[in-house]
Amino acid sequence: MSGQVLVFQLLNGIGIGMIYFLLSVGLTMIFGLMRFVNFAHGALYLVAAYAAYVVSQATGSMLWALLFGPLAAALLAVVAERLLLRHTYAMPHEAQILITFAVALIVQEGVILVFDPLAKNVPVPDFLSGIVFLGPFVYPAYRLAVVAVSAAVAVLLWFALERTRFGAILRAGSESTEMVSLLGIDVHRVFLGAFALGGALAGLAGALAAPLRGVEPFMGLEALGIAFVVVVVGGIGSFTGALLGGLLIGVVQSVMSSLWPEGARLMIYGAMALVLLVRPAGLMGRA
Amino acid sequence: MMRRRTLFGASAGMLAVPSLARAQGGQLQVAGVYSLSGTFANVGDLLNKGTQWAFEHYGNAAGQRINYTLLDDQGDPGRAVRRVQEAMGQGVKHIVGCTTSAIALAVAKEVHARGGVYIHMAGADEATGSECNRASFRWPGASFTAINATVRPFIERNANAKRWYTITGQYVFGESLLTNLKSVLQDAGHQHIGNSYHSLSEREYSGYITAAISARPDVLAICNFGNQTLDVLRQAVSFGMKRNVKIVVPWSTGLDQFQAWGPDICEGVYFGVNYWHGVEAPGNRVVQQVVRQKTNGTTNYLQACGWAVAQMLVEGANKAGSTEIPALIRALEGLSYEGPTGTELIRAEDHQVIKDYYLMLGKARSAMRDPADFAEVVAGTKAFQPPERTGCRMT
């Protein structure tokens, strides 16, 4: 592999990594705050992608789709939290996994019933349908826009978590929910807010991914697998860890596509195993 | 998730595998092996519907009422074999369908060993080659056909496009496409300048596409199937590969994939398909009519393929005048009938159906005459290995 190709694969890997970050940050945030294992996270991504498909078909505008996709996912997260998931917070993780996985399957089968099992196309917005020349290589303009949006979301999220009262409550809640509760803060509302935010982030990832890969009913479970790898590599509950984990996994996958194509997917898990050997709690996780 | 659907016939509704043995006499028990969950569930569901609708349409075979049961293998060859063993243990001898080649190859051995007949739609050459047997029949053209019926006519039309790069799924079917492609390129004096393998679980292909772009090919061939083909082509087009590279997808399921891509991606891309709704043929008109009644839509390959394996069973039984296995197999060998692609012939030597395979070229959105008119048929070819070269030793 020439140096030029290597540099491009690195850049491409950063692009993939930013998308993975967006996909996983909601998952890690919810676990960090509530110690809640949410296997329905991929379902939120799925719902948003289909919402983006429906809205783009109805309006012809991907921009409306990008607005309604995250809203649909946030709404589903809120409804699921209020009706079902809040009753499972005290349960062991095994029960939470079973219940949220059931939610994911119900959503998946619901999508098949409403639509059908076949993949659908979500067109890239016209003004982003071209390519950008990066030296001898090209990069899709839409992909570049997704990276830019992901980076902007990362900055905004950092600001919200580190510089706002809501962020301070979330961070405090991840340390000790009892203490936060004793300070007079309604922890259930905080949990609900965190679920809505996590859902909206997963939804934004789903809506942004729809033009990249189309929509099909099984995309949620696929996304869930990658999201968990990123969260485990980055350290469960860590915002910075999700960013680093996403970038690491993206770069490994992209570079290995040239060095050892048939093992590129395997090396994602290889990288995870290596990180866990060196840092069992993940890159930014606390033991 | 396991779903089992009993579709019609006596004891419908309550019917499950244990009841199969009870339904005897004037009924023909047929089981379909499809994946209604797992990676290929989107494929399995439509294949199953095609089979179901065909049996509903025909109703009887050799005077016996058809009673169809679905066996959901969940995409797992081991589970498929176990489900078939259960069904055959209770008297079912007529099996149709598969969702992947691995499932078909495993089920074919089991059905043969237990004295049944199996009609399927596997894509791997081995099914009517080194792994052939007396009990198994295959409808679609396989990887040899797909490559020879697409790449050779493509080369005739694009003689200057000599440098080929491939992106290949590293599994039986992908390997089979790649091997055949290399052989055709060598024949034609064209150059295979590189290949990127990807795994069955891969979903992100930008790294492979970057590697392909850096090799500066004239042609990119995508050697895989299902949703992976969708993703590779979508991402290759998004990286601007259509600007200066011709793209060939030798194995496509046609309409359903074209709808998933949309015309902007399909335009100018070459596809190989086993079935196209626009082909004028009496058998195709029947399929189209039934599918339109059921879905109010246009027939796609998966529905047609599911239909075809059911039709073969019915045509064979009617010719034999019996559903007894030895008589049915004898009747199927050499049978000619009006199928979804025109007059189709079941070759006796390897049990392969000889039929057209189409090279298609994606149309511009402005050239589409109706919402399903995504591509034009460039060539229709019956490109099959001569029987003596398939490696089939009929047992």
What does this structure look like?
- The complex is a heterodimer of chains A (287) and B (395).
- Chain A is globular and about 60 Å long.
- Chain A has one domain (3-278): ABC transporter involved in vitamin B12 uptake, BtuC, CATH 1.10.3470.
- Helices cover 75% and strands 3% of the residues of chain A.
- With 287 residues, chain A is mainly α.
- Chain B is of the alpha/beta class.
- Chain B is 38% helix and 21% strand.
- In chain B, helix 2 (77-89) packs parallel to helix 3 (101-113).
- The A-B interface holds A 2, 4-5, 8-9, 12-13, 15-16, 105, 109, 112, 116-121, 123-124, 129-131, 137-140, 142-143, 212-214, 216-218, 222, 253-258, 261-266 and B 1, 39, 41-42, 45-46, 170, 196-199, 201-208, 210-211, 213-214, 227, 230-231, 234-235, 238-240, 256-257, 259-262, 264-265.
- Chain B: Keywords: Amino-acid transport, Signal, Transport.
- Chain B: Pfam families: Peripla_BP_6 (PF13458).
- Chain B: InterPro entries: BCAA_transport (IPR051010), Leu-bd (IPR028081), Peripla_BP_I (IPR028082).
Report the CATH superfamily of the largest domain in chain B.
Answer: Response regulator
Mean pLDDT of chain A: 88
Relative strand content of chain A: under 5%
The number of E-state strands of chain B comes to 16
Sequence of secondary-structure elements of chain B: EHEEHEHEEHEHEHEHEHHEHHHEEEEE
Determine the N-to-C terminus distance of chain B.
Answer: 36 Å
CATH architectural category of chain A: Orthogonal Bundle
Shape designation of chain B: globular
Helix content of chain B: 25-40%
Query: pLDDT under 50 segments of chain A (min length 5)?
Result: none
Neighbour order of strands in the largest sheet of chain B: 8-7-9-10-11-15-16
Q: What's the CATH class of the largest domain in chain B, please? A: Alpha Beta
Strand content of chain B: 15-25%
Largest sheet of chain A: 2 strands, antiparallel
Helix-strand category of chain A: mainly alpha
Structural class by sheet pairing and helices of chain B = alpha/beta
Q: Which assembly state applies to the chains in this document?
A: heterodimer
CATH fold name of chain A, please? ABC transporter involved in vitamin B12 uptake, BtuC
The CATH topology of the largest domain in chain B corresponds to Rossmann fold
Would you identify the regions of chain B where 5 or more consecutive residues have pLDDT less than 50?
1-24
Calculate the terminal CA-CA distance of chain A, rounded to whole Å: 39 Å
InterPro entries (chain B): BCAA_transport, Leu-bd, Peripla_BP_I
Signal peptide (chain B): 1-23
Organism (chain B): Neoroseomonas soli
Keywords (chain B): Amino-acid transport, Signal, Transport
